[in-house]
Amino acid sequence: QVQLVESGGGLVQAGGSLRLSCVASGSIVYLGTMGWYRQAPGKQRELVATLTSGGTRNDADSTKGRFTVSRDNAKNAVYLQMNSLKPEDTAVYYCYAVVKPGPMTPWSAYWGQGTQVTVSS
User: Fold this and answer.
1) How many CB atoms lie within 10 A of CB 64?
2) Which CB contacts under 8 angstroms, 24+ apart, belong to 71-77?
3) Which residues fall within 8 angstroms of residue 81, CB to CB, at 6 or more apart?
4) How far apart are CA 44 and CA 32, in angstroms?
5) How is the chain classified by DSSP, letter by letter?
6) 61 exposed, middle or buried (CB, 10 Å; 0-12, 13-18, 19+)?
7) pLDDT digit of tens for each residue in the chain (121 aa)?
8) What is the pLDDT of residue 93?
9) Going by C-beta distance under 8 Å and a sequence separation of 6 or more, which residues neighbour residue 39?
10) CB burial readout 72-99, b (16+ within 10 A) else e
11) 27 touches 12 (CB < 8 A)
12) How does 6-41 read in b/e, with b if 16+ C-beta sit within 10 Å?
């Protein structure tokens, strides 16, 4: 089985920084796009930032310039550096990865359980 485990969430003051980490484990032959989405209460899950295995970025306008996604393929990990945090960034942040678990298994999208980020005024 493929699992994505996030860490690094917490409570931070506006203007502060956090770094989220996500590690994929289990059966992984190939890792494709990895990144982050978030969901605030009462709102739909939305893109934060993703990074393909080839280095192509897809960033949300609301976080562009403040958040940076990176990955370490050797560790099957993806990170989100969040700077200049705003109260509107408060949400559960979910790790996302497209994985091919094995040669007989198709590519599939996987999600972590989420980590809470709360930004106070």
Assistant:
1) 12
2) 71/34, 73/31, 75/23, 76/23, 76/24, 76/25, 76/28, 76/31, 77/21, 77/22, 77/23, 77/24
3) 17, 19, 67, 68, 69, 70
4) 24
5) -EEEEEE--EEEETT--EEEEEEEEES-SEEEEEEEEEE-TTS--EEEEEE-TT--EEE-TTTBTTEEEEEEGGGTEEEEEE-S--GGG-EEEEEEEEEE-BTTB--EEEE---EEEEEE-
6) exposed
7) 899 999 999 999 999 999 999 999 999 999 999 999 999 999 999 999 999 999 999 999 999 999 999 999 999 999 999 999 999 999 999 999 999 999 999 999 999 999 999 999 9
8) 98
9) 45, 46, 91, 92, 94, 114
10) eeeebbbbbebeebeeebbbbbbbbbbb
11) no
12) bebbeebeeeeebebbbbbeeeeeebebbbbbbeee
pLDDT reported for residue 115: 97
